[in-house]
Design a protein that fits this description.
Chain lengths: 361, 250
């Protein structure tokens, strides 16, 4: 069977790419055994700045810019009649973040979003996913030469939501892609942030924060494809888990092609187990076909909550619940502080704290 | 006037080979303004005494009592003990990644005082306390104990002592790992708090060196889980000359 054909198969759960995912909890997004809404739930939250446009156009007029291997991504491409296109013109310096919001309906939705950042433009894009939703999503981001995009994807879904997505960035010469994937809500989240490079000097910084509680499944599958010389990647994902059946999966695949001399890559995943009964899977993979690189490394740690930290804080009069919050906040601070948006930071920490307080209920 | 009263305190720690008794009946009373040096060889249980009073979950109390001004300390949670007026300066202060010193100090002071300190006076209060301990102001933005040198950790402990203003402080081997200059700065900090707030001090140490800077009123020799000899400052001089050998074999 050729690759194209297998891309449309329904996964059985035995495939490497699906072996961690609870297929039964995907609400039919993987096999489309579900009635789909043709609603397009993504839209700009506020007036868009000059030079930024968002439109829904026929999918056939917006061919994919890369070959996808993910089954859900291919289903999205095949099923959606209209894709959402967001363009940022050349030479723009947009200081204020651009906010997109999603309001999904009760039915499942497939959504394809294409984002094109113009030459030498700089912007921050925030996508807020909240409420109830069953969403299969592909986001394709193309960064033209010299551009820079902070891409912030916030999964603050309600308890019963399901979200399966691929976020793929194609990074041009000397362009900088910074992604922040924050997954807190939802019953099952499976997001594949993937990047490739089309010009030398291109760089990706991929950050993630996730927090899973009782019976929640949160999976991030990173794939970085260093296919050309002199590109850079930094991956840093941090997760915390609490409660019975909380499950997180982090896959960090980094591939350095034979021709990708001068590659500089490092990936890191840290997990903090706050209670018994939670499980964090962490699988870094580094495949290197050339030795002529600047650096390549990875680290993965999964540890328990440090009672000594709690004791130290408590011995200074700080009550246990506040001490616990301080430690968790501290754990995530390294990444969340980089968002440089106090409102979002506070909202995310508040959500994490409220989820934590409900563990085991 | 505050009184910390330890009576016949017995403490065990859980090990792989079962419970191990470490403190075998400790009696000690520390009052405001007094400085008690607890001296003894390594492994005699000095630190266990300190951590048991602070409420570390590793230790289980099997007998005896600890009261502060008549209130049962052993019934209190760790943070309640601190709020009641106890402070433990640790030998190995714990790193808390991602939590800045300034946030930590403000949170602790808010908890101890029962209300957030006024922003205007608080900043000055911290600056002054840091300056007197020769701590650079950039210190506030660092994460608690993360990447601190041994001396910085100890100065940070005494900074907390100055700001939290406890009634009774237990200093666990605060002198360890300090060079002469750092020892002097830290000791001056302790003496300053003693003068300003009539602090009672339980000074746990292996060496007599720190006693040249912080003068004890009483010296207690600790060996094999209990106090085996008590006296005035002159007892420290005797230990300086003769060491602990007599107590270990006894």
């Amino acid at each position: 069977m050729n690759q194209l054909a297998t891309n449309y198969l329904t996964p059985s759960g035995r495939e490497e790419a699906w072996r961690f995912t609870p297929l039964k909890k995907l609400a039919g997004l993987h096999d489309l055994n579900v009635s789909l809404s043709d609603n397009i739930s993504i839209s700009a939250k506020n007036d868009l700045p000059k030079g930024v446009k968002i439109t829904n156009i026929d999918t056939s007029d917006l061919p994919p810019a890369y070959v996808a291997s993910d089954i859900v991504t291919n289903r999205v491409r095949r099923e959606v009649a209209k894709s959402t296109l967001l363009t940022i013109s050349d030479d723009l310096e947009i200081v204020e973040p651009i906010f997109l919001k999603r309001k999904c309906g009760v039915s499942a939705e497939l959504s394809r979003v294409v984002i094109q950042v113009g030459v030498n433009s700089r912007a921050t894009l925030v996508i807020e996913n909240n409420g109830l939703g069953k969403l299969g999503e592909e986001i394709e981001v193309t960064l033209a030469a010299g551009s820079s995009l902070n891409f912030i994807s916030l999964q603050e879904w309600d308890l019963n939501s399901v979200h399966v997505a691929q976020h793929h960035a194609i990074i041009g010469k000397d362009a900088q892609f910074n992604s922040y994937v924050v997954s807190i809500g939802g019953s099952t989240i499976r997001i594949s942030p993937t990047v490739e490079y089309t010009g030398t000097g291109a760089s990706a910084e991929m950050n993630g924060v996730y927090f899973a509680t009782d019976e929640q499944h949160i999976e991030h599958r990173i794939h970085v494809n260093h296919g050309i010389p002199n590109t850079k990647s930094r991956v840093n994902y941090k997760g915390a888990l609490a409660g019975k059946g909380a499950h997180t999966v982090w896959i960090g695949d980094v591939y350095i092609n034979k021709s990708a001399e001068g590659t500089d890559t490092y990936e890191l995943n840290r997990n903090l187990l706050l209670t018994d009964g939670a499980r964090a899977d962490s699988v870094p993979n580094l495949e290197i076909e050339t030795g002529e690189i600047v650096g390549a490394g990875h680290a993965s740690t999964t540890g328990r909550f440090d009672d000594e930290q709690l004791f130290y804080l408590q011995s200074r009069g700080i009550p246990a619940d506040i001490a616990r919050r301080l430690v968790i906040r501290g754990f995530f601070a390294e990444i969340i502080n980089k968002l440089k948006n106090e409102e979002i930071e506070e909202r995310l920490m508040a959500r994490i704290e409220s989820e934590l307080s409900r563990v085991g209920e | 006037m505050s009184v910390l009263e330890i009576k016949n305190l017995q403490v065990s720690v859980v090990t792989e080979s079962g419970d191990k008794e470490i403190l075998k009946g400790v009696d000690l009373t520390v009052k405001s303004g007094e400085t008690h040096a607890i001296m003894g060889p390594n492994g005699s249980g000095k630190s266990t005494l300190a951590y048991s009073i602070a409420g570390h979950p590793k230790y289980s109390i099997t007998g005896g009592s600890v009261t502060l001004d008549g209130n049962d300390v052993l019934e209190m949670s760790v943070d309640e003990r601190a709020k009641a007026g106890l402070f433990l300066a640790m030998q190995y202060p714990v790193e808390v990644p991602g939590v800045s010193v300034s946030n930590f100090l403000r949170t602790a002071v808010t908890a101890i005082r029962g209300e957030a300190p006024k922003v205007r006076t608080w900043v000055g209060e911290v600056k002054e306390a840091m300056a007197s301990l020769n701590i650079d102001t950039a210190f506030s933005e660092r994460n608690v104990n993360e990447g601190f040198s041994g001396g910085e950790k100890k100065r940070h402990e005494i900074l907390q002592l100055e700001l939290l203003k406890p009634k009774i402080a237990i200093l666990d081997e605060t002198d360890s790992g300090l060079d002469v200059d750092a020892l002097r700065i830290v000791s001056e900090g302790v003496n300053r708090v003693k003068e300003n707030s009539n602090l009672g001090v339980m000074l746990i140490t292996h060496y007599t060196r720190i006693l040249r800077y912080i003068k004890p009123d009483f010296v207690h020799v600790f060996a094999n889980g209990k106090i085996v000899e008590e006296g005035g400052p002159e007892l420290a001089d005797k230990l300086e000359e003769q060491g602990y050998a007599a107590y270990i074999t006894a």
